[in-house]
Amino acid sequence: MDTIESQILCASLVSRLGVHPAAAESALLATLEHFHTQSHIPAVARAGLTPDEYMEAAVLTPRFKATLMASALMADGREADARLSWAAHMQREMSAAQHAHQAVPPTAPMGNPDTIHCIGRQLGLGDEQTDQLVADIVLMLATGYPFRAQGQRHLSLADILAQITEEDLAELLLHAARSAAARTEEAAAVLRRTRRAGG
Question: Residue 151 class from Cβ within 10 Å (0-12 exposed, 13-18 middle, 19+ buried)?
Answer without folding.
Answer: exposed
